[in-house]
Task: structure prediction
Amino acid sequence: MATDPGVTVRSGRPDDLAQVTRHYGPLGDTPWDPFADERRLAAVPLEGLLIAEKDGNYAGFLYWFEGRKPWFDKGADQYARLEELHVRPEFQGWGIAQRLVDRFLQDVTERRIPLLYVATDETNQAAAHLYERVGFHPFLRTIHYRKYA
Result:
């Protein structure tokens, strides 16, 4: 995919939170999801917030954080987790998700974080393709159960 010179990725700032929550808000499916509410998002450390712009317009965001000793991977120590990646529909197809992931990878490499995680739904083939293209490999599956009352 060719690099679009009109696409930039930068570190997030407090004045980006309103755009992030407007974009993500309808996607929030829990009452405590920080990306669905500007007040809650303001309480989250913003060092892992990356903002993509196309020709100066907000196009999407990526949020990652650094952690230690994940409960789901015994024996692992320091890690980074790509928690959210969203591109506004009108900006999809411009390589924006790839640029956000590239910047995430650059940031964790600079911090010398040795292990990275990301999760996506098995039906999200575009995300799975992107993550596998940059070197992620499946290692754990979760089963969701449901019961009608």
In short: Strands lie at 7-11, 49-54, 57-68, 78-87, 116-118.
